[in-house]
Structure formats: structure tokens, C-alpha cells
Target: Nitroreductase
Amino acid sequence: MSLLKNLNWRYATKKFDHTKKLSAEQLDDLLTAIQLAPSSLGLQQYRVLVIEDADTREKLREAAFGQQQITEASQLIVFAAETNMDEEFGEKYIDLIAKTREIGREHLGGFEQMVLNAVNSRSEDEKIVWAHKQAYIGLGFLLSAAAAIGIDACPMEGFLAGKFDEILGLKEKGLTSSVIATIGFRAHDDHYAQLQKVRRPKSDMFIHI
Ligand SMILES: Cc1cc2nc3c(=O)[nH]c(=O)nc-3n(C[C@H](O)[C@H](O)[C@H](O)COP(=O)(O)O)c2cc1C
Model:
């Protein structure tokens, strides 16, 4: 299947077959796709929780207006923005670049300054908004990768972030939930799978200048 065929095949799955689970390899491929998502300055200022525990998912479902995907899908993925982005966070990233690329840290001074400026010039709230935006890019990569390997998914904003943070203890981890997705396999009777895609016409959406 070509990428565009895959993207037409995917849809926001409302009903998962709860008996079908992703293999460890499929799950790892999807997490790798998220890991490979680009981010502003490469900072990857969010973390990703992979939730399988049934009791936790029951509680989270309540905080997501009862949406059944939360408990019926193979896994629930929670993207969570970093809330404590300080100079240390930036320094750790520079260390990682130096180690990965085997470059002396002294050669990264200019970029280090750019990273620290980007962190220091934003208010705490602005940094969280910035982190949320990066998390959504991760979501996009997850959805595209899932479609590419024939795995169903539902992106979801219909949840109470404050409640999710509480249930998952995110505050203590320096995180706050951004957006979530469920992954798994569609139930054969999910009628949403048959619906035509509704999209704005290209003439209405794209502006060529
Ligand atoms: C950020 C985001 C949040 C969404 N939240 C929900 C949600 O809470 N529950 C749900 O069933 N679908 C949710 N959707 C799915 C959209 O309704 C769906 O993607 C859109 O109608 C287009 O349909 P398609 O994805 O099936 O092509 C969300 C989609 C996105 C991208």
C-alpha cells in the first residue's frame, strides 16, 4: 500500500476489538516512530506513557467522558508535556548531542547558547504551550506510522487533563498531559470504518501564493 492509501485507510477508530493486541514488535515500531518525530531545537520536551493496566484505564476512561476506546484498545498512549524545562534540561540535551555525535562539548557552545536562550526567554506557561505543540507532532508521527503498518488508532482530546494528571501522578513527574491516542485493531462492526472521509476541498484549504 502506498502512504496515501494507508492514510485513507486509517480513521479515528471508535470501536476496538479488545481481544486483539499489538505484538511487542509492532508496539516498539510505533514508539520508535514517536521517538523519531522532530521537535523544536530537537529538545523533545515531552514524554510518552504507554498504559496497559486495566484498573488505571478504567479510571482514565471515566476522566475521558466514558469513551470506550480507552479500555478496549490494545494500549493507551498519553503524550505529556514537560513542565520543568530549565537550564538543566537544556544542558542534558547538549550532553546527549556531544555523546551521540562524539563531539567535544566545547564545540557546541554556540548551539548551547541558542538552546538556553530559547528556554530562558519563555515564561513557564509559554514553555508548556511550546511543549504541547511538540507533543502533537509526536501524535502525528504515531498516527502516520500506525496507518503505515496497518494498526488502528484514535487520537483523542476528549479527556480532562487535570484528572489524567492526578490519576497518573504526572505533576510529581514534572509533566502534564497534552493529548492521547488509543492503538489496536478495529472491531469488525465499527461502522465509522465505512464512512466517507470528510475534508475541506483543497481549493478551500490551500493557499498558493
Ligand atoms: C487532536 C484530536 C483530538 C481528537 N479527539 C477525539 C476524541 O476525543 N474522541 C474521538 O472519538 N475522536 C477524536 N478525534 C478524532 C477526530 O474526530 C477525527 O480525526 C476527525 O473527525 C477526522 O476523521 P478521521 O480521523 O476518521 O479521518 C480527535 C482527533 C484529533 C486530531
